[in-house]
Amino acid sequence: MSGVPGHVACVMDGNGRWAEQRGLVRTDGHRAAEAAVIDVIEAAHGAGVRWLSLYAFSTENWCRPGGEVDFLMRLVRRTLRKHALSLHARGIRCRFLGVADHRIPPLLRQAITDLMELTRDNRGMTLTVAFDHGGRRDIVEAARSLIRDGVAAEDVTEESFARHLPHPDTPDVDLVIRTSGEYRISNFMLWQVAYAEWVFPQVLWPDFRAEHFWECLDAYRQRKRRFGGVPVPLTLGKGSP
Ligand code: IPE
Ligand code: IPE
Ligand code: MG
Q1: pLDDT exceeding 70 applies to what percent of the chain?
Q2: Which of the four pLDDT bands, split at 50, 70 and 90, describes residue 2?
Q3: pTM higher than 0.70 for the full model?
Q4: Which among 21, 11, 87, 14 has a CA at the least distance from the CA of 54?
Q5: Is any ligand 1 atom within 6 A of the Cβ of residue 206?
Q6: Which domains are seen in the chain, by residue range?
Q7: How many whole angstroms from 169 Cα to the centroid of ligand 1?
Q8: Distance from first CA to last CA of the chain, Å, rounded?
Q9: Which among 42, 112, 203, 230 has most CB atoms closer than 10 A?
Q10: Contact (Cβ atoms closer than 8 angstroms) between residue 52 and residue 41
Q11: 52 and 127 in contact (C-beta within 8 Å)?
């Protein structure tokens, strides 16, 4: 049995289908996603999760129609501005993973910087928003950083490599939740999910609420994590060597 996961990461998927099912346009699904995001932050915080990571925009999402991308940029900026003070009041430290592309509008960059600055000394839950994030890009950047630092090949270990990833103090992900019944990793925190447990609720992200999040925590509690070992026996077997 596992306890409360220290680090939960969510692939917030299904906004477009949620809208299509209602005869709405895809961007209405993105707008409706905000309520789910706020509910999940509250639920995670209340449950004692120390690290929550939310996948908001991937490096691949730039290939979506320009109007949808522009809408998402504006929506994220407005959402960050709207909730900054309440996140801060809850002692949540906000970070961003990615945010490298020059197409990110300056006003959004400013909102991101302001929220990080405002909440940087908070010691409650750390909320990492993966925005313009790609797991492969992070790995390539870490390799470049090692080379730039002149690290010798023999000195490259999993530990030293991980120190060159963005936010190297982030612990490995314990639980990944991907909504909408899709079973893909979609280039999300590839290094950090190496030994995560996974759950795939069918619910579309805009309908995802605290109750669904608690169900995911319950599922995690039932998991027996082995990390390549064997279950610890209560008594040692008598078999010959
Ligand atoms: C997730 O919902 C939000 C982002 C990727 C930005 P989608 O927009 O991928 O919704 P579906 O998968 O098309 O339903
Ligand atoms: C992954 O969802 C990215 C985010 C949730 C931000 P996508 O909907 O973009 O992923 P694919 O296209 O199904 O792999
Ligand atoms: Mg999707």
Answers
A1: 96
A2: confident
A3: yes
A4: 11
A5: no
A6: 7-31+49-133+167-209 (3.40.1180.10)
A7: 29
A8: 29
A9: 112
A10: yes
A11: yes
